[in-house]
Amino acid sequence: MTVVSIILVLLLFIAVLFGLWKMQAKHVKFSTRVFTGLGAGVVFGGLLQLIFGADGAVTTEAISWINIVGQGYVRFLQMLIMPLIFVSIIGAFTKIETNKNLGKISTSVLTTLLATTAVSALIGMGSVMLFNLDGAEFVQGTAETERIEQITETSAQVADLSIPEQIVNFIPNNFFADLADSRDTSTIAVVIFSAFVGIAYMGISRKDPENASFFKKIMDSLYTIVMRIVTLVLRLSPYGIFALMTKMLATSDFNALVNLGVFVIASYAAIIVMFIIHMLILTGFKVSPIAYLKKALPVLSFAFTSRSSAGALPLNIETQTKALGVDSASANFSGSFGLSIGQNGCAGIYPAMLATIVAPTVGIDIFSPAYILTLMAVVTISSFGVAGVGGGATFAALIVLGAMDLPIAIVGLLISVEPIIDMARTMLNVNDSMIAGVVSSRVIKTLDEDVLNNDEAIVTSEY
């Protein structure tokens, strides 16, 4: 009977995949297909748990097969990170018209990303205090215990590194090894190497324009090919999201969800407050938040459903240039840097909240100015190198908790609600990178007001 049930579940899963494919064949909008996959996953996963139980034999075996689609999609997204960063950052340098703009663009982008990360850390701390989560204890089930064991193994990689050692670890010593993502800091290492290549290109462009032009053509062609690969992968999003949501709902411990409900609310409250701050930044640079949101909604929706800053990068850059009037160099810099530096949700709010929750358990006064300033600084520095696909928030939290000499078990205790919070965190990460692009373009006075104020200049994802 169990085998028959498993087969029926898998046949229903395949039927939904076929339905999503038929929607694609009929050219239904990409965002509609993604949200359909999201909703179908919630319903299908919920029914699996309701009928067979989260730990039942049918659920466990069926999810192991369904996970091929979900984890396969995640792995394809991870495959894109390094090539995207490499071609996007070098492409940003090839699009800069004068060396003078290079300094202004990089400074304004990095300042925006890092300053907002520091603020987001403060918001995260404030949310914990507001909801009285400091010193809170959470239920530990089987899944949480297994997760804690995994976290303990992962933390060993960064536990013995001081902040200065972490900074040195950002510097690449083998570019090809970092392209293979062999280290936890490989992402930022590729960013740094790509920046060196870009700076070298700008130097050659003055002394040897012919070779520089040839190199630019090669990079333009490579950029086009990588973006085509991105398109092929993103077409899988409705199927991947359906599988991932099915697994999440089918295997989640709903008792744990209830137990962690306050933490989820506190996280979303912090994310919403930080999103409002983003809008205030736009207002300060004379950009209408309403006009911005109309243009940014497609890419933010994709980031929310896909939980991938890397997957959203092409749409991010295209939205900035074609809908928001941002110059190409600022868009490429902010989009690419935003994948690995200063992610407000994953590297700002999340680790700051965890640190503030556990700090009282080891006798730390979370209201102490010294603690608040130290945590803000540690979070900001540790925000370098967080990858743009699921898992980056965990790594950021481990670094921060390790640097502050705080217990790391809390990272594993939140496994039940991690996907729910990660959707909003990813959207905030992408929004921050777009804000950085708008600010940079305004600073160098290249923001195209006509494009920004044109209601018809809206980019939609056609995958």
Automatic annotation (TrEMBL):
Transmembrane region(s): 6-22, 34-52, 72-93, 105-131, 185-204, 225-245, 257-285, 370-389, 395-417
Membrane topology: Multi-pass membrane protein
UniProt keywords, alphabetically: Amino-acid transport, Membrane, Transmembrane, Transmembrane helix, Transport
Protein name: L-cystine uptake protein TcyP
Source lineage: Bacteria, Bacillati, Bacillota, Bacilli, Lactobacillales
Cellular localisation: Membrane
Keyword Iron: no
UniProt GO molecular function: L-cystine transmembrane transporter activity; symporter activity
Principal subcellular localisation of the protein: membrane
InterPro entries cross-referenced by the UniProt entry: Na-dicarboxylate_symporter, Na:dicarbo_symporter_sf
Keyword flag Transcription: no
Family: Belongs to the dicarboxylate/amino acid:cation symporter (DAACS) (TC 2.A.23) family.
Superkingdom classification of source: Bacteria
Entry GO CC: plasma membrane
